[in-house]
Amino acid sequence: MSVQTQTQHPRRFLPKRIGPNLLLLIAILFMLVFILAPIAWLLISSVSTSKDLLQMPPNWLPWPPDFSRYRQLLFGSAGQNTTLTDFTLQAFRYSLRNSLIIAASVTLTALVFGSMAGYAFARIKFPFGNKLIYVLLISQMIPVAVLLIPLYITIGNLGQLDKLSTVIVLLVSIHLPFVIWMLRGYFQTLPAEMEEAALVDGATNFQVLTKVILPVSLPGLFSAAAYTFMQSWNAFMIPLIFTSSDTTRSVTVAIAMFVGRHYTDYSLMSAAGVLASLPPVLLAIFFQRYLLAGLTAGAVKG
Amino acid sequence: MKASVRKSRFSSRQKFGLLLIAPSFIIILGLMLYPLLYSLGISFFNLHITAPWLGTTFVGLKNYLSVITDPDMHSALEHTLILAAVGIGLGIPISLLFAIILNRKFPLRGLVRGILIIPWVIPGSVQGLLWSRIFDPHYGALNGILIQWGIITDPVAWLLDPTRALLFIAFASLWGAVPMMSLLYLSGLQSIPEELFDASRVDGASFWGYIRYIVIPLLLPITLINLVLRTIDAFTMFDLVYVLTGGGPAGATQVTGYYLYQAAFTKLNYGYASALAWLIAITVTLLAIFYSRFTLKEETAS
Amino acid sequence: MYKRVLVGLVLVSLVLASCTATQTPTATTAPTDAATTAPATTEAPTAAAKPFAGVTLHMLDSAEGQTDAMIALENKCMDETGVTMNVEVVSPDDVRTKLQTALSAKSAAYDIVGIDIIDLAKYGAAGWVEPLDSYIDEATKSDILPFALEGISYNGQILGLPWKSEFMVFVYNKQMLSDAGIANPPATWEELVADSIILKEKGIVDYPVAMTWGAGYEQITSDYTMIAKSMGAELFDQDGKPVFNTGAGVEALQLMNDMVNKDKIVDPAALTLKGGGARRDLLLGGQAAFVFLWGNPLVYMNDPANSNLAGQFALAMAPSGGAGPISLAGPMGMSISAFSANKEATWAFLKCIAGPSGEKELFLKDGSPFGYTSVLNDPEVQAKLADFGGDVTAKQAENLAVRPSLPYYSDWSSALQDTVQKVLTGQAEAQQAMDDLAARTIQMQAEYAQ
């Protein structure tokens, strides 16, 4: 909405400050409703009693809110007559930390290797041309479901089952091709004159990459990092098959454990979902500053 | 001058390039080459996992032919393409709008950016449960709110109608994907120096130029990434279909990803599943090349 | 040039080091996992009674199975046999994915595997589980309840010990029935339909029978099998040929169709629903009067914390279709992996955990269903069974059918689910659809007959 208005009448919103601000406000509200409406239902479910969830129309504001699920997930133990066990609770508590380690390590590693290879594919002409990157890409397009058995055989033979490092390395190798491709696209948008000038000035190849290219690529690196972090945080199949214990199990696998064979406690699943999304959301609020850093760096160089 | 710089550095620069891509190739191919070749290999065999007395038989292209000629597969492909089209058609404008909003300055922007990523980090199993609780025909939030507002009088079984079921799955999947797409666009917008935008605001003509020569070329590569991501998502979608409709009613929401999962894990037909996986990979790669031809052409045209 | 490479390598190794560094806390802060590392093995040093001391075994189970009672039993069995048992848990749905990946890779990762009846034939045909005929003695074998025995037998071999041999019970809302002037719960399918129509006409509920027949959901096969068997149908004849497309096999499907489309006593929304919770909640919220549920659902349903209608729910025998009040069992088996390196030790542990005494203990503490006659006849067990719903549960345990054991079961069941969905959405006629299914079944069989 606001896009069209801006592009068609770019002048109109300049003198009058109210108009664009109102449009912006409407757009922000639309966005918040789009994102938050389902989450609101998740939050409501997480503080509802099982009786509240059986009402139609629903009890939108269960009062007083029932925080027993949160207490149970964080500090409590499993009660009687439920499909929940202490085993699951403990797995959940450890899994948040495991997932943070996995996602952060995968992101860092993929970013280092990905920016190196992405730069090479963007800026250096090889005799074999750019076809190599498509070889890498197609390897990522293969659904992981059919790779599990050979991977399991390989990892099992190497004696590396049930290790965080195994999950990290596997996720890096699965997501790296796309990171390379993304970063290559980003590096290609940078003007070639920059590095040529630096090379003439006597900078080494490595210096060109670390001192000239990477500093102006922060937005690109940030989006690649966000992509990798999200993919590894949400990864399910690889952690499911390659982790078995509390010290390795990812949050996705742990939360699936709340689904019972016949019966599932929706409120508990909702509370677990809320808790599981807190750490990455806090990280995002913190790290979004780096987007601004990217802007400043870009502005200085530009 | 430039040419001579390039020429004199040609071989050492290529060596440098090879060193840059070497780690990525080692980690990707070292781990993935065997599984990839294995899955390619068994796609020409029938392993007879549940009938070992029949041995492993070479069947040539039979698995590929049965995928291609299977009418169930044709309707699954059709549904997948609809999912991809809805994901792209709705997802790109919505995420672009969100990115433009988040690129403007307003109070609590950091918090709103944090909120935007929430759908991303809610584990797939919780998302599936959440949507099934929203669309539930008896106790669902969607029916609840529509009844509360007097739009409908009786609850509706949303997922009973084939077309509607597919659209609802597409929407649920879009909700989880919009954060990634928006952040990608946002990082693109962030790399545009602010002075250019300020300057463009002064007069309409240069604002158009700003959109035409700066924003569009810059966002095209990102649009390409978003197109590819949405296509991969549509072709490998599994959780939401599994939780929400199970491919029903009567196969009306069967998609390639769920079909593949059933072939591999329910029917243990690894040869068939691998053939399907390779066909999916080839289709998605071809689509990616098609998209990139399209976007690159636009880019050079501008 | 090489200096730069060196710098690069140092950077890379720093990154890798930081990865491993972040992992080190796992070693120090490793949780002392109640089930795996804290067995009471050191408490009673009766070495002679521990024939397998020093052997470490691995077991894959669903998370909800690892209750306090189960962990106590595991510890007791570890103590008795001397083995160290590592229990690995994932969600019930994921057990299959994880198990099949390990077994397809011929991995010895798991010694004990829990298998649902619907997978047993598949695993048996694939040679993934050890036949137990040479291990199990006659007394134990004849102690196993008939339906539970079916759940662990394939091709004339016993592939496991009975484990949580659950079955469905028929739950109804007695308040609604008395409001409608109905004295007794329906004893036959005709009565169920007739009572439902009364409940509908009196405006008590719109769709009295709660079903969950969502696509790709095993409950369709379970309910179809239950109805067909209660009408006296055989799904396959003595030679294994499909006969479900004749007589009661077709009538059962027709009844399902009529309940949705003719008598309208099952909500068409059932075709989009999955999970026992979804149909149980229809009764808890007062939207239905009859439901079939697994396990011992009354404990939860009659708890005032969970429903305003708590106290109104009661058990009845499953409706009969002429062949008796037959419900469906979903027995499971605890089996030994064919790739286990310690089969003797695994058997010793298995006997302890899934034998009559183990199953009795789990039933008394958790209400977990069991598969032995001696447990059923045990006075303590009988007393507790009465708590769960009088003698109905005990009587229902003697009137159970199971789904067929077929190596191509998954294929067959998903084809059946698809058939039922097609008929119930009006895309096919019951007889024609069943004939098509029979033809497809013969094709599936042909692949095994080569």
Give your account of this protein's structure.
The complex is a heterotrimer of chains A (302), B (302) and C (450). Chain A has helices spanning 2-8, 18-46, 68-74, 86-123, 131-141, 148-157, 164-188, 193-200, 205-213, 218-234, 237-242, 251-256, 266-287, 289-301. With 302 residues, chain A is mainly alpha-helical. Chain A folds into 2 domains: 2-66, no CATH class; 86-301, MetI-like (MetI-like fold), CATH 1.10.3720.10. In chain A, helix 4 runs parallel beside helix 7 and helix 5 (131-141) packs across helix 7 (164-188). Chain A is globular. The two termini of chain A are 30 Å apart. Chain B has a single domain (62-301), classed as Orthogonal Bundle (MetI-like fold). Helix content of chain B is 77%, strand content 1%. Chain B has helices at 2-42, 62-69, 71-103, 109-116, 118-121, 124-135, 141-148, 162-190, 194-202, 204-236, 239-244, 256-266, 270-301; strands at 45-46, 57-58. A two-stranded antiparallel sheet of chain B has the order 1-2. In chain B, helix 2 (62-69) packs across helix 13, helix 3 (71-103) packs parallel to helix 8 and helix 12 packs antiparallel against helix 13 (270-301). The two termini of chain B are 28 Å apart. In chain C, strands 1, 2, 3, 6, 7, 8, 9, 10 and 11 form a 9-stranded mixed β-sheet that branches. A two-stranded antiparallel ribbon of chain C has the order 4-5. With 450 residues, chain C is α/β, with parallel strands linked by helices. The model of chain C is unreliable at 1-47 (pLDDT under 50). Chain C folds into 2 domains: 48-165 and 330-394, D-Maltodextrin-Binding Protein, domain 2 (3-Layer(aba) Sandwich), CATH 3.40.190; 167-328 and 402-449, D-Maltodextrin-Binding Protein, domain 2 (3-Layer(aba) Sandwich). Chain C has helices at residues 2-28, 68-81, 92-104, 117-126, 138-143, 146-150, 174-179, 189-201, 219-230, 248-262, 276-284, 298-301, 343-354, 356-366, 373-376, 379-396, 409-424, 430-449, and strands at residues 56-62, 84-90, 112-116, 153-154, 157-158, 161-173, 209-210, 290-294, 313-316, 327-336, 400-401. The chains are: A mainly alpha (302), B mainly alpha (302), C alpha/beta (450). Chains A and B meet through helix 1, helix 2, helix 4, helix 5 and helix 6 of A and helix 1, helix 3, helix 4, helix 5 and helix 6 of B.
